[in-house]
């Protein structure tokens, strides 16, 4: 049975975007041609409380494409797929076309 | 006589879920087929005070299935069973079917 | 003359519970059969002030049986008996039958 | 397709200014003649919340020329160009002619 | 001329109590028979300000017998006698007969 | 073209005062005759926000002669001259004749 | 020309008191007969702001004799005399006859 994770506090569940290592026409791309460490937001937590007790909602939302730091995040396996959990403040920004 | 633990502050008593190493039909599962580090919430503390003196209740409740970090938590033995204590903020999220 | 200690701030004076190494019937118990690190609360401090200047009373009271962390606490000798001092926030929980 | 990054919190996207190693007349400049580590602000985040929950906007704006610390910042590659992300408080100052 | 020290902030001037190594009847006490690290409060500072600017007075007073931590404190020599300075929050408790 | 730096937050741009190694009459001064690490304030930032969101202006002003700590500060080169950037709170004091 | 230092924030300018190594009658004192690390307050800063933005004035004043910690403080040379700068909170207390 598929499991669904609701992240706690201001944690964000991310599915990393793996860059294709070949073009659709079958041409091999040189390694590391795209080093952008990005991912898709799959689920977000309810937010965390600040020092004054106010709830600070998570700044990204489900479906956002985000830029991730090179290090950090917690790798988890859910329904045989690999995901990562990041704190909202560790997400570097959102990517737009 | 069975002992019952009431965790202090925002501590959460967890009974870890051990994944079966064999299917019910007797087929041996490859090791680490399921690396999800999860547990059942057995008891929660009354919550902790924030810097302004407000009580912040624990975000999970008895019976919740939670995703746990790979490291951390305090292992304790109660009534000959193994449990773990985690701070509420260290719980990564709740798992739902 | 017996001395009495009134702990300062949110310190808690604990007398550790040493598990019997033999049953009352004289049967030797295997070592570490009971690893529960627990103690009896002997005296509590008046509480500590939070950052806003409010007094936060100690959450345990004299006579409570408490679960203690494996490390930490200050060992002291009072009237030829061994006691330990813990900060209230380091006590893991209270044990009840 | 060109991607656009909107930095999170008080992060600032910078395109570093590479000093010319030759004058326009073709004279080779001695190495390190200009050690000023500066960059152009390409995009800024919405600002970060302070401990009282107030939004602190980023102090620099798109188009500013800024002085950068020698260490720190996160290098990223976007649309085949190299950029750096800095926290607003790590920018040393703005440069003006 | 004898000098008097008024401790600053929440510092407490302590004269350590040295346990007798012989009983009054002349019987040699085994070493470390009394490991209680205690002292007499000689002078206290005016108290320290908390983060909200309120003065928090020192919790012990001149003449109190206090239990001291094994490490910490600043040794000073005043009028050829040895004293120790402790921060109020480092004093473990007060001792009473 | 000469560049002007406006420091960010509570940063202070300093031009260090180099003590003459000879008197004007040509007599060689012994090394380290003057070890005072001082500088001239060239530019100051707008100030930094405290934890309550209030702007704290920089305590020194352009033209002040300041005493600097032996370590710390960020060396930069501007218009072929060497300057140092210090945080306002790292400046030890102002010097007056 | 003699220079005068006005310490910044809650810094205190101290001239250390060097104990005489001979009595006035010419008798050599044994070394370290007086280990009291004390000094005279020469100048004090205007005070530092606490987290709520209130100015906390320096607790000692010009002319006070103060007890100093064994380590810490910044040594400076002013008008060919040696001084030390301490933060107000590092001064252990004031000495009175």
Summarize the entry for a quick read.
The first copy, chain A, is mostly beta strands and 97 residues long. The first copy, chain A, has strands at 4-7, 11-16, 38-44, 48-49, 55-56, 65-67, 74-78, 81-87, 93-96.
Structural overview:
- The structure is a homoheptamer of 97-residue chains.
- The first copy, chain A, contains no helices and 9 strands.
- In chain A, the strands form 2 sheets. In chain A, strands 7-8-2-3-6-9 form a 6-stranded antiparallel β-sheet, with no helix packed on it. Chain A has a two-stranded antiparallel ribbon with strand order 4-5.
- In chain A, a hairpin with a 2-residue loop joins strand 7 and strand 8.
- Chain A has a domain at 11-17 and 36-94: 10 Kd Chaperonin, Protein Cpn10, Chain O, CATH 2.30.33.
- Chain A has strands at 4-7, 11-16, 38-44, 48-49, 55-56, 65-67, 74-78, 81-87, 93-96.
- Chain A is globular.
- The model of chain A has no long low-confidence stretch (mean pLDDT 87).
- By secondary structure, chain A is an all-beta fold.
- Chains A, B, C, D, E, F, G: It holds the Pfam family Cpn10.
- Chains A, B, C, D, E, F, G: Forms stable complexes with CPN60 in the presence of ATP.
What is the strand and helix layout of this fold?
The structure is a homoheptamer of 97-residue chains.
Chain A: E1 4-7, E2 11-16, E3 38-44, E4 48-49, E5 55-56, E6 65-67, E7 74-78, E8 81-87, E9 93-96
Antiparallel strand pairs in A: 2-3, 2-8, 3-6, 4-5, 6-9, 7-8
């Amino acid at each position: 049975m598929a499991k669904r994770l609701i992240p706690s506090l201001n944690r964000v569940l991310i599915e990393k975007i793996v860059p294709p290592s070949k073009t659709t026409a079958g041409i091999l791309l040189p390694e590391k041609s795209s080093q952008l460490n990005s991912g898709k937001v799959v689920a977000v937590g309810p937010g965390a409380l600040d020092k004054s007790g106010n709830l600070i909602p998570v700044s990204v939302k489900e479906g956002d494409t985000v830029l991730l730091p090179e290090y950090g995040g917690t790798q988890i396996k859910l329904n045989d797929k690999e995901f990562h959990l990041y704190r909202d403040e560790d997400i570097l920004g959102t990517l737009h076309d």
